[in-house]
Amino acid sequence: MTNFNLVPLTAAEVLAIDTKLNEIKDSLPLKIGLSSKDRQKLNPIGRKSTQFVQRVVESIRQNPEIAPQFVDAQNLEKGYELYNQLGAMLVPVNQLQRMLADTMYVAGSTTHGSALDFYNSAKRAAKSGIPGAQVVVDALKPRFRKSKRVAGNSDSRVNPVSTST
């Protein structure tokens, strides 16, 4: 893997990015937030459904007389147009999200690797009797403490408790 020159963003860069993201958010005329339950109640459009809806939109345009009265052809067409517009916007948004996630992943991985290198160096220094090293090791050691699983519950973990008195 390539070594990356990881440089934190300046406060001005963070502010500028946040401002632009908020501008994009604010420019959307319709913002809907759904709960998981709400999502389950809806009929999502998949690849095959997209083609079906496109054909229905075209068929209603060409044959309005066979459309049932309870189907609002204009609303159907507008909804489909919005769906396609948002889908086109989602491509670069997903690319940006992936790029941010990957950059964060690399920054975290690089940082964690360096932290482990330091911890191992501190352990070697403590074994060699270098003053102050054991204090550092003791402060960092809890991160590597093993935990026991509670009987009957594989998700719950408790730290081991010393029973010696």
Q: Would you summarize the structure shown here?
A:
The chain is mainly alpha-helical. Helices cover 62% and strands 5% of the residues.
Fill in the keyword field for this structure.
single chain; 165 residues; mainly alpha; two-stranded antiparallel ribbon; 2 strands; elongated
Explain what you see.
A hairpin with a 2-residue loop joins strand 1 (148-150) and strand 2. With 165 residues, the protein is mainly alpha-helical. The chain has helices at 11-27, 36-41, 47-62, 73-127, 133-140; strands spanning 148-150, 153-158. The protein contains five helices and two strands, in the order αααααββ. Helix 3 packs antiparallel against helix 4 (73-127).
How would the blueprint of this fold be written?
Elements lengths: L10 H17 L8 H6 L5 H16 L10 H55 L5 H8 L7 E3 L2 E6 L7
How many strands, what sense, and barrel or not for the largest sheet? Answer: 2 strands, antiparallel
Question: What is the helical fraction, as a range of percent?
Answer: 55-70%
Radius of gyration: 28 Å
Strand order of the largest sheet: 1-2
Give the SSE order as H and E letters. Answer: HHHHHEE
Strand residue percentage: 5-15%
Give average pLDDT, whole number: 88
Number of helices: 5
Outline: elongated
The SS-based structural class is mainly alpha
Gap between N and C termini: 50 Å
